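Q: Can I see a sequence and its folded structure?
A: Here is a first one.
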Amino acid sequence: MAKQGTLLIVDDNQNILTSLRYLLEEHFAQVLTLSSPTTLPTLIRQEPVDLILLDMNFSSGINNGNEGLYWLREIKRMKPQIQVVLFTAYADINLAVTGLKDGASDFVVKPWENGRLVQTLLEAYRKGNGKDKKKQLAPQMPDEGAMYWGESEAVKPLRMLVDKVSATDANILITGENGTGKDMLAREIHRLSNRRNGPMVTADMGAITESLFESELFGHVKGSFTDAHADRIGRFEAANGGTLFLDEIANLPYHLQAKLLTAIQKRSFVRVGSNRPQSTDIRLICATNRDLDEMVRKGEFREDLLFRINTIHLHIPALRERKEDILPLAGLFLKRYAAKYGRNLQGFDEEARKLLLSCPWYGNIRELQHVIEKAAILSDGDEVKTDALQLAPAHHPEPDRKAQTEEDMQTLDEMERSLIIKAIGKCSGNLSQAAAQLGVTRQTLYNKMKRYGI
């Protein structure tokens, strides 16, 4: 069989890289190696990589696999067509499932068996190049980035407004509860706009630390601070000619809001360490789950900044306000994940449908997607049943309250999830306040919300 494709091996052990290069050069046209993933984004932009064998741990003393999962997600974000096989010395089934859910093709455990490793990599390569017959026969998955509008009356006014304003360059503010799809709507607006051929750049204001705010948004020049080893462009510059999406805008500290306002007003910025203004041509979209008018009244958000970002206000209704769309959305997610995990699932049984419709879905579409993905993995046969949905007791229709018995006890995960939901509700969606009330950092709260589909 003729050698085909480019394989990239990422592992911090030089002996492993050398051994694998000798082994796999017999099977692939080109084998590249990296001892650190830090230059991985640059390499996959420059080289036509088809397949990556990715180690899960790179930092000394750390073996939880989180680094590998982070780089897996980065690869899939940048180049979703690249197949990734995870490589780890720790045979953890939960880690394997997480990696598969995040887009990995397969999972190989060290120490490896040569024949099994080669077979796994070749199967992943064939899958990525359309040579897998099962893949060819699989039903077409819905596009994960596509906006699902549905038929609900609650959404129709929003859709009409989006159609009207997308072609303009007006600044847009998207509001809605967590999980309603604000980022997806932002991508849809960009797709419908005259800037569709330009870049869409996203910045999560809740995830950028205060100390790195200016560097992340405006860039920096080499030597401007301790770790500035090279010039770096910021989000405003990267989005030139396209759309800049600022998610969780309400989480931007008050004292930094003036700097953002100046850049928006002037459509120019100054890199950290420079004194030369640079202009940028962007279309600005912001999103939040909080009431910015109320924040202005409390002195937590600048009124002049709100005026600038809020030329057009789009509000996405909660999923419980568009019940007609719950089952169609669940069907789309089921089709996607049945194809992804090789399940022959055709739909939901009657009891499962009733349960899906009766749930309040506090986490909205994101929570529904998480539940259906899990159900697709756990289901047998051709229909999803209620037990596969694994909905927490709080999501079932309210029963007549009886004295709790030992059988009513929740798992620790269910208790933690319920506690997070209560804290967010009590704080009116203010994640910073909810994190403080729960005694965790804001980033930890984000991670737990993603884990539980909130």
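Q: Show me another, different protein.
A: A second, unrelated one:
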Amino acid sequence: MAFEDREDRVVLTDEEGGEHPFRVIDVIELEGKIYAILLPDAGDVEEAGVEEAVIFRVEEDENGEEVLYDIEDDDEWERVAEAYSHMAEEE
């Protein structure tokens, strides 16, 4: 997937159509899936209501475009968060 090659910023649109800029702080592969670790831009932390990194699974849609999906499975989220934590500790 090309997500790793993109610029380090993305804009996410919430359910009300509001746009929120995020920095891509890392992209990891785990169990054959790609995950993006995002952090809200400094000016958007209060507005977005997110104060820490968020994790999304990166998948391709039917048009071949990469899309970020919420991780709804708690076990999957924990595995990714733990893998990222271990990677961050090693750096």
